[in-house]
Structure formats: structure tokens, C-alpha cells
Amino acid sequence: MTEVARTHPLLEDARLPEVLTAVTAGEHAPRGSGPMLDVEDPATESTVARFEETTADGVAGAVENAQAAWRGWARLDPVERGRLLNRVARALRENADRLARLESLDSGKPLSQARTDIAGSARYFEYYAGLADKIHGETIPQPRGTFTYTVREPYGVVAHITPWNAPLTQMMRGVAPCLAAGNTVVVKPSELTPLTSVLAARLMVEAGLPPGVCNVVLGAGDTTGAALTRHPLVRHITFTGSVAAGRRVGAVAAERIIDVNLELGGKSPTIVCADADLGAAAKAGALAVIRNSGQSCFATTRLLVDRRVHGDFVERLAGHVAGLSVGHGLDDPDLGPLISAQQRSRVLDHIDRAVRDGAEAVVGGGAAEGAERGYFVSPTLLSGVTNDMAVAREEIFGPVQSVIAFDSLEEAVEIANDTEYGLSAGVFTAHVGTAHRIAAELQAGQVQVNRYSGAGVEVPFGGYKSSGLGREKGTEAITHYTQLKSVIVATS
């Protein structure tokens, strides 16, 4: 195990212990006999923190504590629940700087991106605080002498398994609507990026959230995650990650006959028509490799470009990509490192294979120059890609953009839909009719027109096909974090 300083300055500022443990009822669990795991700064390859993996007994304790807290939380006046969620939002904003710096250190993302994520995390709580007392049922017309209505009720304890690319915002995206609906939660962040989740769980209790309403356990998916999803008191699972891992989580949910939300990635296409604003489309294409260094399931990583403007577009996009800076996240470059050595190796292998398959590396194509340490990959633009290449079919999760030429809109739509994924898609065109027609034909849970960036917390998000099940964000999330009860009353 790599040696680490007694306490990293950012952990000391956040009042985090030398060795992190699970957070149950707002307190760090006592040290036990679980395995010790390192938390790495991916920009320097140095260990910045350690944590003890939560054992199956520790997971059971966190779930049972959340179940006990649920009894009071579910009975709390929804107006009061909303007030407490607003207090959590304020606590996140008041601690935004230390949370952002921890997130940047932990995940490698540029500090400005981390700050945006923390603001988004607070916004989730503000939004769902306003919805807490507006979770309505409906009355249903019935024959005379009968009155029928529906109510939405919480599940109880909900397990949230979150990814490493956006640790806090992915946590709060699911936790906020869960709490607004009257559930309690146990979160298992990625073992690669646990720092902000641990701090946030403590801040929530300090803000007034009742202890046990949001607990955090630590460890890998096949140990801590498995113990959490299989616990009999967990009545709903929310998972964000790979398709392969999502299938395993979905199988557990099916075996236990409980509900599940799965967000499992994408290979999102954007169609650039001949009449498009090529400058705006090129900027959107560059953003895909900037955000989390391309480690984003939402990113548009297949740019389908009309052959008549292909050369002009590639030149514009190359200008954007070639000018991107790479460095330590805390220095706030355009791109930080990838999350691990394994991920860097995987991305570089994909680039090499794409070139062997006939693609041209117009920009980049290898490890970032001048980086003696850290998991850096040079921002890369591949032209001459065809949709049968692995780089066009598999989720790369790195700063790699691919351009595919098409000759007709019918061909473009066919290429766009020729994928197992269906998370998001885009279209750039000056013709509103074309935009609506293509949006209707694209097989994706979200379609962006003449833009490609994240939408607000109010907009439902989720995928078609292998990109997942269920929806996060917006009022739609409430429907997935509640169960419907029908009440039929004889009135005669």
C-alpha cells in the first residue's frame, strides 16, 4: 500500500478523519476489521486518503438505522420535509468551496467543473424541497356509491450506488427526490471517489436532517455494493454505471422483486446538417471531450456530419480540440486526468485500434505530452470513422471525439439509431421542421436541438434500450421513488 501523509490539507480543512469509515446517523462508524483501500489523486498518482471498506455487518447496520429513521421521516409533515431539504441546500452552498476542491482532488476534474457540480447538487435540494408538499394522487370517476382515489407513498429504504465521474451531483440527483418523497437512503459511492459523499452526509445532519435519513457506506461494488442491494430492508435500488454492472444489479432486483432505476451509459450521436451553424456544432463537439475529460455517459461522442460540410466542420472542431489545456484539476485547466491507470490504458487502446481500423487522428491520439505522472490522455479527434468501428460502438469514456460522414438524413438517422444505447442525441439544423422530424425519429431518452449541454434539474433524464430504466430529474423522478396505492370506498 502506498504511503500517505497523515492528513491531506483538503481533508483536514473538511474535518475528515485520517481513515474514512461509513457515515451512519451522521457519525463516522468506529474502525473495525474491514480491508483498507486507498483514494488516489489521478493527476499525481499519489494516495490522498484511505478508507475502511464497510463490511456486510456494517452495511446491515446502516440499512437498519435508515429503516428506523424512515418511520419518523415518512410521517413528517411534507412542508417540514421541504424546509429541511432547503437547509441542506444552504449547507451545500456554504461549503461549496471545500466540496469542490475535494471533488477536484478526488476525481481529477477541473475546479470550475467541480464548482458547477456542487451548485447543481444544491439546486437538486432546492427543487425537490419545493415539490415535497406537492406529491399528489388523483380521484378516479366510478359508479355512484363508490369513491376512488390514489396516493403516492414512499418505498422505505432506497439504495443509491453512484459513479466516480460526478460523485456528488450523481448522489444528490437521486437522494433529493427520494427524501422529498419520504424515503430514507443508503448511498454507496464509487470506491475511487468517496470523499465528497462522506462529507456531504455529515453536512446534511449538521444542517438539521434527522440522523439516519441519509447514510453512506464505503467499498467496492462486488462486496459492499452487493451486501447493500441484497439487504432485505432495501426496497428500491438506483444504480448508475456500466451496462455489465447494471445487468447484475437488475438481476438482483428481479430476484428480490423490487423496483430499480438504472442509468447505464451511452454512445450519443449528434447529426450535423448541411445548413447547421457549424461553429456552434463544433463547440458542442469539443465540449464532449472537455466535460469530465470525456468520462460522461451523456457526452455526444459520435458526430454525424453531412459530407457537403464535413471538411469545414472537422477543421473547426480540430481548432477547438487542439487548443485545450490539460493539467491538475485544482489548477483549473480545460481537461484533467482520467480516473485511473486502467481507464487511461483502455482509452489509449481504443485510439490505437481506431487508427488501425482506418480512422485518422486529426488531433491528439496518445498520452498527453509533458505529463510525467498522472493518468492524462491528449484530447483526440478522429476523422474517417465508420459506424462499424469499435470506437463508434463502444463507450470509450475518455477525451475522444469521432466524426462520421453521411450523405442523406435518412442515412444519418439510421446510423444514429444503430447502437445498443439510447441515452441522448442531438441535431444541428437551421430548419425547424427538420429538427422536429429528426427528434421524433431518434431513439433516445433526450434530444438536444442546436445545443448539446446538460439540461436543468427540472428536465427528466434517462435512456432507451441498454442505456437504462427509469428517469431521474424533474417531477418524473418522484414517480420512480414512490409506489402507487388505490383506495376504493363504498359511500352508499
TrEMBL record:
The keyword Hydrolase does not apply. SUPFAM superfamilies: ALDH-like. Residues 36-487 form the Aldehyde dehydrogenase domain. Keywords: Oxidoreductase. Gene3D superfamilies: Aldehyde Dehydrogenase, Chain A, domain 1, Aldehyde Dehydrogenase, Chain A, domain 2. The active site is at residue 263. It comes from the Bacteria. Belongs to the aldehyde dehydrogenase family. This is Aldehyde dehydrogenase family protein. It comes from Actinomadura rugatobispora.
